[in-house]
Amino acid sequence: PLGAMLEIAVGSLRFGARWEADAAPKTCAAFRRLLPLRAQLVQARWSGESAWIPLGDLQTGLGYENHTTYPAAGQLLLYPGGISETEVLFPYGSTSFASKAGPLAGNHFATIEEGRALLAELGRRVLYEGAQEIVFSEG
b/e map of 105-117 (b: 16 or more CB within 10 Å)? Predict the structure, then answer.
């Protein structure tokens, strides 16, 4: 439905994200098909101030759409697989999206609008406390 937000829960932290449906309609539709999604959010190893959700060999059927290597904090990316495994990147600070194979570009499909002030705490938890359960749903 129009106006629906992507709701994200990481422990006690709550976020609301705006779908980037005009710029990435296929990616938004593909991610919506995964909802509700419960997974583990872990610190990214090569991407700077960012966490990621590994999705393994999930086939999204997507190519590049509204893709970037340098997302701002709160700009969620879906990497459709190829050079590296399928994943969601959750930047909480300065990010340069990469894998052990080198730079990557992911599809920017949602932007955190509610809870932006909590991004630094999200980063602290993932970095110092380890993997965090994350739940995506549509509200």
Answer: bbbbbbbbeebee
Residue 131 has phi, psi (to 5 degrees) of -55, 140
> Average pLDDT of each block of 10 consecutive residues along the chain (139 residues)?
84 97 96 97 97 95 96 98 95 97 96 98 98 96
Q: Cα–Cα distances in Å, from 113 out to 15, 53, 75, 102?
A: 7, 20, 10, 30
**Which residues are CB-neighbours of 11 under 8 A, at least 6 positions away?**
125, 132, 133
| Distance (Å, whole) CA 4 – CA 113 | 13
Between the alpha carbon of residue 75 and those of residues 8, 51, 120, 129, the distances in Å are: 13, 12, 14, 23
What six digits make up the tokens of 32?
Answer: 């919506």
Residue 111 vs residues 69, 74, 108: alpha-carbon distances, Å: 15, 6, 8
